[in-house]
Amino acid sequence: MPPSTSYLDYIKDLFAPFGVITIRKMFGGAGVYCDGAIFAITGDDDLWLKVDDVTRAEFETAGLAPFVVEFSKGKAGTMSYYNAPDEIYDDNDVLTHWTELALGASRRAKKPVKTKARKKSKS
């Protein structure tokens, strides 16, 4: 089930102190972006934060689980997102800690924008 409009509004407000928050619906859920970079995903009114090799161990140590996507023919796979701890909704320090981990993973994953090479004119 896709996340509710009220939940998406809540998520925008929750993360507003970290930058410009936008949400794009996709694949039955939504991507949560801060200043144009995705750092979280939602679905069924649940939240998962972006991880990478630098941050994954901290999420696992906290007992947080990865986002699992089910593919056709009964196969499943994980994505680089782990569920957010419930405490982020009640404690600003906890919110800041986990959000900064996700934003860091997002920044490290962001690929540089490629520019087209200019052709040299023959003079």
Topology of this protein?
Blueprint: H1 5-15, E1 21-26, E2 29-34, E3 37-43, E4 46-50, H2 56-61, E5 66-70, E6 76-83, H3 92-109
Antiparallel strand pairs: 1-2, 2-3, 3-4, 4-6, 5-6
Structure overview:
By secondary structure, the chain is α+β, with helices and mostly antiparallel strands. It has a single domain, classed as Yope Regulator, Chain: A, CATH 3.30.1460.30. Helix content is 28%, strand content 30%. The chain has 3 helices and 6 strands, in the order αββββαββα. A 6-stranded antiparallel beta sheet has the order 1-2-3-4-6-5. The radius of gyration is 17 Å and the shape is globular. The chain starts with a helix and ends in a 14-residue tail after the last helix.
Quick one: CATH superfamily? YgaC/TfoX-N like chaperone
CATH architecture: 2-Layer Sandwich
From the N-terminal CA to the C-terminal CA, the straight-line distance is 61 Å
User: What is the overall shape?
Assistant: globular
Structural class: alpha+beta
Q: Provide the succession of SSEs.
A: HEEEEHEEH
Total strands: 6
The Cα radius of gyration reads: 17 Å
The largest sheet is: 6 strands, antiparallel
CATH class: Alpha Beta
Structural domain tally: 1
Mean pLDDT: 88
Largest beta sheet: what is the strand line-up?
A: 1-2-3-4-6-5
Descriptive terms for the model:
123 residues, alpha+beta, Yope Regulator, Chain: A, 6-stranded antiparallel sheet, 6 strands
Summary, kept brief:
With 123 residues, the chain is α+β, with helices and mostly antiparallel strands.
